[in-house]
Amino acid sequence: MKILAFGASNSSTSINRQLATFAAGQIAGADITILDLNDFEMPIYSIDREKLNGIPQLAHDFKNHVKEADRIIISFAEHNGGYSVAFKNVMDWMSRIEGDTWEGKSFFLMSTSPGARGGATVLGQATGRFGYMGGQVMASFSLPNFFESFDPKKGVIDANLKETFDKELSKFISA
Ligand SMILES: Cc1cc2nc3c(=O)[nH]c(=O)nc-3n(C[C@H](O)[C@H](O)[C@H](O)COP(=O)(O)O)c2cc1C
Predict the structure, then answer these.
(1) What pTM was computed for the model?
(2) Residues facing residue 106 across a β-bridge
(3) pLDDT tens across 61-84, in order?
(4) Of 146, 151, 172, 174, which residue has the fewest beta carbons closer than 10 angstroms?
């Protein structure tokens, strides 16, 4: 199973990349590709730029990663209650390429933040929206209080949260 995973953040120390990478690593025998959104930095989307120069090659490259994956794991950084600009820009450019943005792929959508809500607001946006953009949301999970709930070596360390995470991961794998 080819798994594509990334944190929807451009932070070099992204806690969401850590969570997405951890989740992918829990899937036995998976062929895992982890993306860094910094490798897909493009001009801010504008209709004028698109008319003038077309869609950047990096948007096509990102879309090809989506096409090649069997399943996709994203963990969203929450910025002012919404997507990070870095993710939104990649998604906006990609959505201008013909066809469904998310290519009918199955998703495990997550979020985490240092705070008590764990990015639940942005996760709600994504779970409510991906189905309208050609994605199938199979499972979702929000991890609150990242620095207390997650250990870089052990992963999710809070027992209750780990139980929920495992249940959601199973739904994703068996979907
Ligand atoms: C511009 C900005 C806005 C933020 N807004 C929120 C927010 O609305 N909710 C939240 O829980 N955390 C918010 N945070 C804190 C992020 O959750 C925190 O920076 C987290 O590390 C982001 O994930 P990342 O490390 O994967 O980039 C914000 C951070 C920044 C820089």
Answers:
(1) 0.98
(2) 71, 136
(3) 999 999 999 999 999 999 999 999
(4) 174
